[in-house]
Amino acid sequence: MRIVIVGAGPTGTTLALLLAKRGIAVTLIEAAKDFHRVFRGEALMPSGLDALEQMGLSRLLADIPHRQLDAWEFIFGEKLLFRVDEPMGASQPCTLLPQPPLLEALICEAQTNKGFQFIQGVAIKDLRWSNQRVAGVVLSDGREFAADLVIGADGRNSLVRQRIGLELVRQPKNIDILWFKLAASPKFASDNVFRTILNGDRVFSIFHAAESGKLHLGWVMSANEKTDSKQANWAEIFASLSPSWLAEHFRNHADTIESPIRLSVIVGYCPRWHAPGVLLLGDAAHPMSPVRAQGINLALRDVIVAANHLVPLFQTEAQCQEIDMALSQIQAERQPEIIRAQQLQLKEATQGELLRKNPLVRSLLIQLAPLLGKIIQKSWLNRQYQMRQGITQVHLTV
Ligand SMILES: Cc1cc2nc3c(=O)[nH]c(=O)nc-3n(C[C@H](O)[C@H](O)[C@H](O)COP(=O)(O)OP(=O)(O)OC[C@H]3O[C@@H](n4cnc5c(N)ncnc54)[C@H](O)[C@@H]3O)c2cc1C
Prior knowledge:
Blueprint: E1 2-6, H1 10-21, E2 25-30, E3 43-44, H2 46-54, E4 67-68, E5 71-76, E6 79-85, E7 95-96, H3 99-110, E8 116-120, E9 124-130, E10 133-139, E11 144-146, E12 149-152, H4 159-164, E13 169-170, E14 175-183, H5 186-190, E15 193-199, E16 202-208, E17 214-222, H6 234-241, H7 244-252, E18 261-264, E19 268-269, E20 274-275, E21 278-280, H8 295-315, H9 320-357, H10 359-389
Parallel strand pairs: 1-2, 1-12, 2-8, 5-15, 12-21
Antiparallel strand pairs: 3-7, 4-7, 5-6, 9-10, 10-11, 13-19, 14-17, 14-18, 15-16, 16-17, 20-21
Helix pairs in contact: 1-3, 1-8, 2-8, 6-7, 8-9, 9-10
Bound molecules: flavin-adenine dinucleotide (FAD).
């Protein structure tokens, strides 16, 4: 029996590895020629780090350069509203881990298992059917692979989801993000704070990424906003919104600001993640907002639940009917956490947008900040617990 997984992002690679290690034949198919696509999220929350540990993969961190966050700060109108230090009661702090070396290490390890096959640089273009059940995939180069189960781990624009006709209910599209990189200074290395800066109707976040000596900056824009990102004097724009020490950094390192990439933010939820012979996981089933870095963490937890159900079935060569029944159990187990996490992300994004778009609320907040800072901090912290530690219990049992 064979499982075909479409997409070698965090969902596809970790699931392929877990299955292959347990003696299940897996074919993993990835469209991109390598893992160095322009942008891949890299923040892992304690829940994601715990998932890697349960999978026996924490040791990979020893060989991959990564960076821990020290704190989160919110700066309104150039004044600090509040700061919260990591790890906020968790056993480990939020950690920035670059995806390309992680994915490469996972594939290397999977390749030591006999039944594992990795096809890279070819997209799937269609599904194969047999008796009204999905029975494999067709690649863009014409090759076909038969499968007892196809897993769509092919991200937010999932072709598997489209071919099977599973609906994605999208949240209204509000924002895009312009993603910049620029040089850091030693200050950022010694106290790596994820800063969110709101000034006037502008908001951006800045932190020292896993890559040594590089700051990442996410500039929030309305989805319909046009910008000539090549012409703008970004150093001056960022400096004009920042406290003086940071403004000085932008001006001194203006020539290191790289041309940004525009990342479109899609958030949604599939009411149904499965059909006979096929299951969607990760962003294919529930594309996540970047707010408080949930996507990779939730994807890793999807993988644990899927492995718990699928491994016993494939190890005992179960019937198709039993496999299809397990697919709905996987969704049922994951659904509460995903829906809650998306609600919490939406709440945080809505509050941010209210402040960004409403000058009255903004000026009230700035005036009352000395009085309200502690209350706002407490309410923010309450919301973070679930987004950092996970909402339901997820334990790898196979
Ligand atoms: C701006 C932004 C910042 C983010 N930052 C973070 C963060 O810091 N931390 C975090 O946890 N989450 C973050 N996220 C969310 C996170 O990126 C996703 O939730 C996560 O990558 C989902 O993993 P995945 O494996 O399901 O999908 P993906 O990572 O999208 O992987 C899907 C893979 O499938 C491949 N593929 C697609 N179509 C085909 C096909 N037809 N055939 C074969 N292969 C195919 C793709 O090439 C890709 O490699 C961010 C999102 C955005 C938009």
